[in-house]
Amino acid sequence: MTVPLRPVSAVNALADALRGRVLSGEIAPGTPLPEQELSALYGVARPTVREALAVLVHEGLLRRERHRSAQVVEVTVADLDDLMFVRRPLEDLMASALAGRRVEEADAALGRMAALPAEAPWSEMVAEHMALHQALVVAVGSPRLERLYGSLAAETRLGLVRLRAVYPDREVLVAEHRDLLDAIGKGSPEEARRAVAAHLDHGWGE
């Protein structure tokens, strides 16, 4: 028995392409994305462009004002400091709950992160970085914690774009996450909490 695969729509394909460029830092924060220019660049109709941009607006990566082109959301260092102010207690709860446990999905995300070639777009590092932390939160088993953490996803992803400058050697980022998972998987609640706090205490390449 064969299961036919649904072809990727032009809207989804364009949204994927633009998302990758935003999360790799190729399209800088604040950059406008005129529909007519994107239509010509990608060879698709303007309604397709409009729908693809709407997908990214919904994800929080773009913002759109009336009668103006959509543009990449700008997240300031002050925004990111406030983001971490909220993330720290959420991930502290995660560390307490998961201490002494390995999370298979988080280990799998780390494996994919480590396997990325050096020339892979930074957006792929962002995706696996997000997948790893999301897997840890989901493993706690609290729908409310998961919802709260998910509400921070867009700003977190845009913040991770900045880490490209902080981690020119991607292996350092991989090693830090390996140490984090080891500390959670093998440590006491206090040890896991300290490891998570240290992991989240970094700059943003400002």
Q: How helix-rich are the residues, as a percent range?
A: 55-70%
Strand content: under 5%
Judging from the principal axes of the Cα atoms, what is the shape? elongated
Low-confidence stretches: none
Tally the helices.
Answer: 10
Q: Major sheet, described briefly?
A: 3 strands, antiparallel
Provide structural commentary.
By secondary structure, the chain is mainly alpha-helical. 67% of the residues lie in helices and 3% in strands. The chain has 10 helices and 3 strands; from the N terminus they run H-E-H-H-E-E-H-H-H-H-H-H-H. It has a 3-stranded antiparallel beta sheet. Strand 2 and strand 3 form a beta hairpin. The radius of gyration is 19 Å and the shape is elongated. The protein starts with 9 loop residues before the first helix and ends in a 7-residue tail after the last helix.
Helix and strand topology:
Elements: H1 10-23, E1 32-33, H2 35-42, H3 46-59, E2 62-63, E3 70-72, H4 77-98, H5 104-115, H6 122-140, H7 143-150, H8 153-166, H9 170-186, H10 189-199
Antiparallel strand pairs: 1-3, 2-3
Provide the descriptors you would attach to this structure in a database record.
3-stranded antiparallel sheet; elongated; mainly alpha; about 210 residues; 3 strands; 10 helices; single chain
Task: Give a quick rundown of the structure.
Strand 2 (62-63) and strand 3 (70-72) form a beta hairpin. Helix 1 crosses helix 6, helix 4 runs antiparallel to helix 10 and helix 5 runs antiparallel to helix 9 (170-186). The protein has helices spanning 10-23, 35-42, 46-59, 77-98, 104-115, 122-140, 143-150, 153-166, 170-186, 189-199, and strands at residues 32-33, 62-63, 70-72.
